[in-house]
Specification:
Elements lengths: L2 E6 L5 H11 L6 E8 L2 E8 L2 H10 L6 E7 L14 E3 L2 E9 L2 H10 L11 H12 L4 H9 L4 E9 L2 E10 L4 E4 L4 E4 L2 H4 L5 E4 L5 E5 L3 E4 L5 E2 L4 E2 L15 H7 L1 H12 E2 L4 E2 L12 E6 L1 H18 L2 E6 H4 L10 E7 L5 H12 L4 E5 L5 H5 L2 E4 L12 H20 L5 H24 L1 H11 L4 E6 L3 H16 L2 E6 L16 E6 L5 H13 L3 E7 H4 L8 E5 L7 H20 L17
Parallel strand pairs: 18-19, 18-20, 20-21, 21-22, 23-24, 23-25, 25-26, 26-27
Antiparallel strand pairs: 1-4, 1-10, 2-3, 2-4, 5-6, 6-7, 7-8, 8-12, 9-10, 9-11, 11-15, 12-13, 13-14, 16-17
The structure holds fructose -6-phosphate.
The site of fructose -6-phosphate has 14 residues, from helix 9 and helix 16.
Length: about 600
């Protein structure tokens, strides 16, 4: 989603603003702009499309100044053109905004009634108009800002600077994250610590409702009641992870390849290797909980569906999974003896955060499984389970998914032990299998590459693909389909194999590839029966199975990928690899923008 950056300095800022925007471009955007103030002039350059277009404008017509702001826009109100791109300027006031102002129509109507005319179709422009009107009435900037905040509804993180006062910038946050970065003789503002990483690693996150006044040497914060407030400075860890492509063609390719290392990091954090037991520092009270509700969006939700099977099987817990966008509006009373667990790579997803707030408001114990430490969801949940995947830059989630699975496995084992469902010997056995995962993943990644390229060559020519599986392979089928849709723009659906004959089988004909995920587990024979039904209707089966499954005769597939046979607890992590690789290779052949697929954003901070 949109990203913003601001710099208040004694040095020129335009080049650094562009560098910071490049670091934010992983979030997904469709136009961009920057503005600076110099010698009483406010200079602005904006361009639709990628940052390259904006850079070309700046090369042709540079701007300078020692205070400035930049923005990448993911269109909500109004198409992605130059006029709708940020920054928006009205008179003395320059604004960049992330989020959605929900009472935008009402505010716009009031402004129009007062004779204001609008340049853009955006909700963001109204912020500049409201501020400009207040300043024209003689109000001081901070009073104008606090008065405006009291009129806004919705989700926002925005920054304002003033042509007539280049010594300061103001910012406010309600919903999407916003961090102030502390430099030496200069201060920064950014949507996340990744944008700020080359500038500083010392950050202060604004809390919801906060407003900030930033000068070269200081930041003054006000809370939602307009009272001065202190917020802790933190050291961001982003800089300790590499976030360049490291020789790979795309971040997605790099992040797929990084998975063995990422899972090893998860295990180093959650497992005692010598005694083979799971160590979880801050556990939720799973031992007394009657059940768990897991809530998340997209890929994180599908990781939750696999996590559910671990928690049921190894910890005997009753688990429900629900999309956060639905869960947040549930009207059912939530039993106090259940706990709620939220899964989010970014830790900023608006629906997941709202679902967390709903549970907190009811006094329910909450846990968060997040990748970005210091994110809003991480800060607000009672217990935090970091997935330590390192920055995930590709919009399509890959390594975060398998790390979420590994953390779920660890949580389930720890909860199972506390609840007396598994004993020490069983725990040691399960941990022994988990420890094997990084090595097996490494082998699989190198061994199946050529076969994946052949399969991608088949998929590139088809308009639709079905993915099916049973048990954990059902959420995996949905994840495989989601990946293919996202990055290769091929229509794909993931189904529970047993559901096929209740409808989707009508789609099966000679032209329909069906990717069957069938490890040799307790569902294998049933899935084989479903394969026979597909083959009988001319469907082209691409089988993902393991050595034991492949040894069974009579499997009607046109192509197959055979993986090592592994224990159920690591099978989803291993079987996720060919699904991710296939989507990636197909996307490369299709020539799509793999790391920033059209219409998608990495961090979905609006509802
Ligand atoms: C798909 C994908 C999305 C995210 C979803 C939740 O590849 O990345 O479906 O999983 O938007 O995002 P987080 O995990 O940041 O809450």
């Amino acid at each position: 989603m949109c990203g913003l950056v601001g710099i208040v300095s004694g040095e020129l800022v335009a080049r650094r603003l562009m560098d910071a925007l490049r670091r934010l471009d992983y979030r997904g955007y469709d136009s961009a702009g920057i503005a600076t103030i110099k010698g009483g002039r406010l200079e602005r350059r904006r361009a639709p499309g990628k940052l390259l277009n904006l850079q070309q404008r700046l090369d042709a017509d540079p701007i300078d100044g020692v205070i400035g702001m930049g923005h990448t826009r993911w269109a909500t109100h109004g198409v992605a053109n130059e006029t709708n791109a940020h920054p928006h300027v009205v008179g003395d006031v320059c604004v960049v905004h992330n989020g959605i102002i929900e009472n935008f129509s009402e505010l716009r109507k009031d402004l129009a009634g007062a004779g204001v005319s609008f340049e853009s179709e955006t909700d963001s422009e109204i912020l500049a108009h409201i501020m400009a009107q207040s300043l024209a009435r003689g109000e001081k900037p901070i009073a104008a800002m606090l008065a405006m905040l009291s009129r806004l509804r919705g989700a926002y993180a925005f920054a304002v600077m003033f042509r007539s006062d280049p010594s300061m910038m103001m910012a406010a946050r309600f919903g999407p994250p916003l961090a102030v970065g502390h430099g030496i003789g200069e201060m920064f503002l950014g949507s996340d610590a990744i944008a700020l990483a080359p500038l500083t690693n010392e950050v202060t996150y604004l809390a919801n409702g906060d407003c900030a006044v930033i000068t070269r040497n200081d930041v003054t914060l006000f809370d939602a009641h307009g009272q001065p407030v202190e917020r802790a400075r933190q050291l961001s860890e982003v800089g300790s992870y590499l976030s360049d492509k490291g020789g790979y063609s795309h971040f997605m390719e790099k992040e797929i390849a990084e998975q063995p290392e990422a899972i090893a990091r998860v295990l180093a954090r959650y497992v005692d290797f010598s005694a083979k037991f799971v160590k979880i520092e801050r556990e939720m009270n799973f031992s007394v909980a009657a059940g768990i509700t897991i809530s998340a969006c997209g890929t994180a939700f599908l990781a939750g569906c696999i996590g559910k099977t671990y928690l049921e099987r190894y910890a005997g817990l009753n688990v429900e999974t629900e999309f956060a966008s639905e869960f947040r509006y549930r009207e059912l009373p939530f039993p106090m003896d259940r706990v709620a667990l939220f899964v989010s790579q970014s830790g900023e997803t608006a629906d997941t955060l709202a679902a967390l707030h709903a549970c907190k408001a009811s006094g329910i114990a909450t846990g968060a499984m997040i990748n970005v430490e210091g994110s809003t969801i991480a800060r607000e949940a009672d217990a935090v389970f970091p997935i330590v995947a390192g920055p995930e830059i590709g919009v399509a989630s890959t390594k975060a998914f398998t790390c979420q699975l590994a953390v779920f496995a660890c949580i389930a084992i720890a909860a199972g032990r506390r609840r007396g469902i598994i004993d020490a010997a069983q725990e040691q056995e399960l941990v022994g299998h988990l420890i094997e995962a990084p090595r097996i993943m490494r082998e699989v990644l190198s061994e199946i590459q050529l076969q994946i390229e052949d399969l991608a060559d088949r998929l590139v020519r088809v308009p639709h693909v079905l993915y099916i599986g049973r048990g954990v392979s059902y959420p995996l089928a949905m994840e495989g389909a989601l990946k293919l849709k996202e990055v290769a723009y091929i229509h794909a659906e993931g189904y529970a194999a047993g559901e096929l004959k209740h409808g989707p089988i009508a789609l099966v004909d000679k032209s329909m590839p069906v990717i069957v995920i069938a490890p040799y587990d307790r569902f294998f024979e049933k899935t084989v029966s479903n394969m026979q039904e597909i083959a009988a209707r001319g469907g082209k089966i691409i089988l993902l199975t393991d050595e034991r499954g492949a040894a069974k005769s009579d499997l009607p597939s046109v192509a197959r990928i055979v993986l090592p046979h592994v224990h159920d607890i690591i099978a989803p992590m291993i079987f996720a690899l060919p699904l991710q690789m296939l989507a990636y290779q197909t996307a490369v052949l299709m020539g799509t923008d793999v790391d920033q697929p059209r219409n998608l954003a990495k961090s979905v901070t609006v509802e």
